[in-house]
Every structure is written in structure tokens, then in C-alpha cells.
Design a protein that fits this description.
Dihydrodipicolinate Reductase, domain 2; alpha/beta; 10 strands; 5-stranded mixed β-sheet; 5-stranded parallel β-sheet; Rossmann fold
């Protein structure tokens, strides 16, 4: 049985996911996309071997069994709610926004839907989730990004913190994963994913640095648990959108493949 996939958001992430589906993925087919600029998305369809309709957000759930959210965080509810009411699987990348819309989990439960958060630009979520079964004392993450990747974040604007013209690293945030997700909704969804995999958004702590000396988005995770103590670090290459990395759409593709693969690796 082939499962239909719709993509909400056709930017740096959504386009890559669509291209992989268009090339062919076992048991899956691209059914529809939605985009802020529908005309531009329709033009992009010409590059696909099997073009699909560009439809409004609210119609994605009608067109597909799986809805992949690759849109601005403010649109999460408009994408997820109709799909979950229909019992669809919703893959969420704006998982920072999910922390403030956690009733969507209850909606999924009530209607036979499911929410899946892919690993995205972070590594080690399997290890953190496994450690959480036995008990975790501490989870701390240090994120370093080129200043351009943080410019315009709501937390920086609200607190009058500038990141232009830096000649040395500057710590721009230290606090909980919940507050990080609210203050940097386009930058640190990885913090929310880490928190949900482990000890929650209020106990997980985050530092965010604007660092002119890095060209990659770097995340270092430190975990103290009953079963293990471990440190993980990844330096992801930014995509055409400096706020997200090239690993993020590839993680979505890997998660989609895992849904229908006869062999699945990882918890």
C-alpha cells in the first residue's frame, strides 16, 4: 500500500524532501504541497518528474496520509490540527512551537493520529531517549551559530541584543529549552527535540552563542544519566537559509523511509 505525503512549506527544507519523494521512495508518493508563495511553488513543480497540486494548508489533510510540516512555527497549529483530526500522521519540524501547543498530542490520541518529530540537525536523540528510560540527571546543550543564523530572533530583538559586526563569540542566551524555543523559534528547534526526548523543556538547559569564528551550526550535548555519561557534538553545514542546516531535510527523508522500510535501524 502506497502512503500519500503532503508537504507544508516549500522552502529550503520542503523542496529537498519533495525532490527525494519525486525520485521515488518505497511505499510513499508525493501528493500535494502548500506554500506561502503558491505561484513560485507551481513554477517549481516544473522541475519534478511528477508534479503535484499546490493547495491551501487546510486541504493538505484531505490530500495525504502523512503531512510534513516545514513551515514557519506560527503556522504549526493551522497545519497539524486539521490533519490530526483526520487521524493523519504529522511530521513536525517546528517542535519548539509544539511545546506551547502540546494539546495537539491529546488531539492525536483522540483521533488515532500520530505526531513524529524527526532527529533534524541533532544527533544522539536515540541515546537520550534510551537513557531517559533509566533516568537522567542533567541534559545541557551548547549551540554555536554564525551571527547571521541568529539575526532577527525574537529574544534578541526583545532584549536589544545585537550580533552584527562581532569579532569574538558572544553568548546571547542561557536558560531552559522552553525559553530557548520561544525566543529562537527558527533557530533552535533542536533544543525542543532534545528536551522531549529526555527530561523535559524546563530541566533541559541551553546556551546559545553567536560565533563569527564558525561557519557551521554546532550543537554539543552533555548528558549525565544512570546508564551512561556521554557528550555528543555535530557541526552541520547551513542550507541556503542560514537558520537551518542541510541535515534537516535529509533527516526528514530518512524518517519517511523508515516508516515503510522492511528493515529499520534505531529506536
Amino acid at each position: 500500500m502506497t502512503r500519500r505525503v503532503a508537504i507544508a512549506g516549500f522552502g529550503a527544507i520542503g523542496r529537498v524532501v519533495a525532490q527525494h519523494l519525486d525520485r521515488g521512495m518505497e511505499g510513499l508518493e508525493l501528493a500535494a504541497v502548500s506554500a506561502r508563495d503558491a505561484g513560485r511553488a507551481e513554477q517549481a513543480m516544473r522541475d519534478l518528474a511528477r508534479p503535484v497540486p499546490v493547495v491551501p494548508l487546510e486541504r493538505l489533510a484531505e490530500a495525504a496520509d502523512i503531512v510534513v510540516e516545514c513551515a514557519p512555527a506560527a503556522l504549526l497549529r493551522a497545519i497539524a490540527e486539521p490533519a490530526l483530526k483526520r487521524g493523519r500522521l504529522v511530521m513536525i519540524l517546528s517542535c519548539g512551537a509544539l511545546l506551547d501547543n502540546f494539546d495537539l498530542v491529546d488531539l492525536a490520541r483522540a483521533n488515532g493520529g500520530r505526531i513524529l518529530v524527526p532527529t533534524g540537525a541533532l544527533l544522539g536523540l536515540d541515546a537520550v531517549a534510551a537513557a531517559a528510560v533509566g533516568g537522567i540527571e542533567r541534559v545541557h546543550m551548547i549551540t554555536r551559530k554564525p551571527p547571521a543564523g541568529l539575526a532577527g530572533a525574537p529574544y534578541l530583538v526583545a532584549n536589544g541584543i545585537g550580533v552584527e559586526g562581532l569579532d569574538r563569540p558572544k553568548r546571547v542566551f542561557a536558560g531552559s529549552a522552553r525559553d530557548a524555543a520561544r525566543g529562537f523559534p527558527a533557530n533552535v528547534n533542536v533544543a525542543a527535540a532534545l528536551a522531549m526526548a529526555g527530561i523535559g523543556p524546563d530541566r533541559t538547559t541551553i546556551e546559545i552563542w553567536a560565533d563569527p569564528g564558525v561557519i557551521r551550526n554546532t550543537h554539543r550535548i552533555e548528558v549525565e544519566a544512570d546508564a551512561a555519561r556521554f557528550t555528543l557534538e555535530i557541526a552541520g553545514v547551513p542550507s541556503e537559509n542560514p537558520r537551518t542546516g542541510k541535515m534537516t531535510p535529509l533527516s526528514v527523508v530518512a524518517a519517511l523511509r523508515k516508516l515503510t522500510a522492511p528493515l529499520a535501524i534505531g529506536t
